[in-house]
Amino acid sequence: MAEALLEVKNVKKYFKTPKGMLHAVDDVTFSINKGETLGVVGESGCGKSTTGRVVLRLLEPTAGQILMEGQDIAKLSEGQMRSKRKEMQMIFQDPLASLDPRKTVGQIIEEPLKIHNIISSRAERQKRVLELMEIVGLAQRYYATYPHELDGGRRQRIGIARALSMNPKFIVCDEPVSALDISIQAQILNLLEDLQQEMGLTYMFITHDLSVVHHFSNNIAVMYLGKIIELASSDELFAHPTHPYTQALLSAIPVPKLENRRERIILKGEITSPINLPKACRFASRCLYATKQCFGEEPDLKEIAPGHQVACFLKDKPD
Amino acid sequence: MSERMKNGAASEYALEIENLNVEYHVDKEVVHALNGISLKVKKGETIGLVGETGAGKTTTGLSILRLIPSPPGVVKGTIRVMGEDIGSLSEKQMEAIRGKLVSMIFQDPMTSLNPTKTVNDQIAEVIRLHDKIGKKEAAAKAGDMLEMVGIPRDRGVEFPHQFSGGMKQRVVIAMALACSPEILIADEPTTALDVTIQAQVLDMIRDLKKQYNMSMIMITHDLGIVAEICDTVAIVYAGSIVEYGTLEDIFNRTAHPYTVGLFGSLPNMDDRTQRLKPIQGLMPDPTNLPSGCPFSPRCPRATAECFAKKPELQNIGGEHLVACHLVKEG
Predict the structure, then answer these.
(1) Can you give the pLDDT at residue A229?
(2) Is residue B31 part of a domain?
(3) SS (H, E, C) B121-167
């Protein structure tokens, strides 16, 4: 059996708002095996990015454990966490907003090496930066250029090189290809795949793009209003989506094919507010099959097949 | 507006574009945004304009409304809306066309709405601009439009910020359809929306299009949306149409290496382990286009001829047009 690199147990992240507590992440539990990818999907506001940030402790969890190789990083002091962060990096959606516009490509990639004092000799550092640039497919001539002079794909490569500079074990990729054109998106996805193979990286891949997540992930967690509502292997989830929300979500993907079109499930309404949630299934108000029970109780994640968990009361809904 | 335009009897096409060229003269450089685009859209037909950032999709849409700022824009070529050459119209005549004969929906609904006016007032404003009716009547019609796009009439008194992204896009669509246009230009109308909301909005656009028998130009980068909504497709690359045909031509008889590359870049939903086949390199700089085929620097099959001479669109069967030296007729 593969070994878990990261285990997240009952993690919550609440935000205080004038209207009440906002349950951004509400009791999520999952684990990611070494060298594998967990895809986290869901729509705007479902808590997927917040989960990514909490896992890296860029946001402090309200409750729960985050075990990185068995060690609970939620309990680490700030100093300990800083050094732990070398192992845990992040790649952001908007490469331009996450790169300092006043620094050159070389300086951006070099910065973490300086901060963590990993390579003190300037010449050695430059050598390492050029090496990283080669790994991510950035030509050496861009060493002294600024991010705004480059296109989106190259900017994203800078972000990846910077994350790799620490030799991380784990990378949270938050919508890393959403801002890119299709042909460039495929280049970056292939790069991330190659890096995973070569360096044994473990990814948490956050996205709203279901065809990308299917291609890229071993396992997929579907989130809705701060909860994981379904968790399964990528193939299992796409073959047997079980939660009514997952079914609707998958059926809504526009498929670039003329044959074998799926029947669409059109959901009514929109995501509700994560503030002052009633004790009920969070999807009940939009669910096509909701019963009285769904409006009165909250379902827990239950295993329905090996490795396939679903949070839904319904048993005899259509497949 | 002439009589001819009103009943549109002059042509079987709602829109004809012939050899459209758009350049922007900025400083000492010339940006070649569109380089000789020609296309025709029949009444009631939906054409998909597909391409990546900077291909010229939006510029094409704006040209049809004559909204290219000049200077720095220089527009050449002919555009006929319901048979009438819009190049010969005065600015005043053009204002009568915008929103009445041709409407456009933009990608970002947040920036297309006025934050200081209630949504009902904004829709009524468009109606009163084109139809000579009273305030009360216009307000009532605006309410009808809201209901048509699935928003309860009584929410018309609210302001845009009180609506979610999907609802705002519905308001924008209601506004675009308020005067029953002949042609709707939809510029990435669902790109900013979540996938379940996108499905709702696409469904609605399709129904309304049928109901109004509109022609539509769907500008998108998403081949999945094209497969669901469009009748014909134009693949745009660096300001030129490189492939044009029916849905079947483009999806099942893909001919141009760029179109092949676009499909290869998409994850295979049936086999997730299949490696993506991206197109190498980047879109050319529009101030410095290659002298031959615009795709030649990225094309895996390019020959000496491709670097030397820009290929013309040629018919390879039915209505399937391809601009490629390597694709022969038949």
Answers:
(1) 96
(2) yes
(3) HHHHHHHHHHCCCCHHHHHHHHHHHHHHCCCCHHHHHCCHHHCCHHH
- Structure confidence at residue A270 (pLDDT): 73
Give the CA-trace dihedral at A72, A74, A75, A77, to 10 degrees.
120
Q: Is residue B187 part of a domain?
A: yes
Q: Looking at the complex, does the CB of residue A255 fall below 8 Å from at least one CB of chain B?
A: yes
In a domain, A287, yes or no: yes
Q: Is residue A178 part of a domain?
A: yes
Q: How confident is the model at residue A104 (pLDDT cuts 50, 70, 90)?
A: very high
Residue B77 lies in a domain: yes
Residue B90: the pLDDT is: 93
B-proximal residues of A, 56-75, CB under 8 Å: none
Residue B73: left if φ>0, alpha if ψ -120 to 50, beta else—which one?
A: beta
Out of B247, B263, B272, closest to residue A215 by CB = B272
Of the candidates B197, B262, B269, which has its C-beta nearest A182's C-beta?
Answer: B262
List, for chain B, all residue ranges whose pLDDT scores fall below the cut of 70.
1-10, 329-330
ipTM of the complex, rounded to two decimals: 0.82
Mean pLDDT of chain B: 90
The one-character DSSP state at B257 is H
Does residue A154 have a pLDDT over 60?
A: yes
Q: Is A248 on the interface with B (CB under 8 A)?
A: yes
**What CATH number has the domain bearing residue B156?**
3.40.50.300
Nearest residue to A199 via CA among A220, A225, A178, A171:
A171
pLDDT at A230 over 50: yes
CATH no. for residue A131?
A: 3.40.50.300
pLDDT of residue A49: 92
Domain that holds residue A108: 4-310
CA nearest to B79, candidates B67, B96, B69, B92: B67
Is pLDDT above 70 for A319? no
Query: What is the total count of domains within chain B?
Result: 1
Residue A278 token pair: 């009633």
Instruction: Tell me whether B222 touches chain A (CB under 8 Å).
Output: yes
Tokens of A89: 């990096």
Taking alpha carbons only, the member of B192, B219, B189 closest to residue B203 is: B189
Q: In the prediction, which pLDDT does A257 show?
A: 87
Which pLDDT does position B122 carry in this prediction? 94
- CB-closest option in A44, A183, A266 to B265: A183
Confidence (pLDDT) at B4? 46
Whether residue A113 is contained in a domain is answered as: yes
Closest approach of chain B CAs to the CA of A256, in angstroms? 4
Q: Is B264 an interface residue toward A (CB < 8 Å)?
A: yes
Q: Residue B94 and residue B88: Cα distance in Å, rounded? A: 10
Q: How far apart are CA B325 and CA B156, in angstroms?
A: 55
DSSP H or E run through A245: helix A244-251
The pTM assigned to this predicted structure is 0.87
Residue B14's H or E segment, with its range, is strand B13-26
Q: Is residue A317 part of a domain?
A: no
Q: pLDDT per residue over A15-62, tens digit each?
A: 998 888 899 999 999 999 999 999 999 988 899 999 999 999 999 999
What's residue B1's pLDDT?
Answer: 46
Which domain, by its residues, includes B171? 3-230
CB A83 within 8 A of CB A29: no
B321 belongs to a structural domain: no
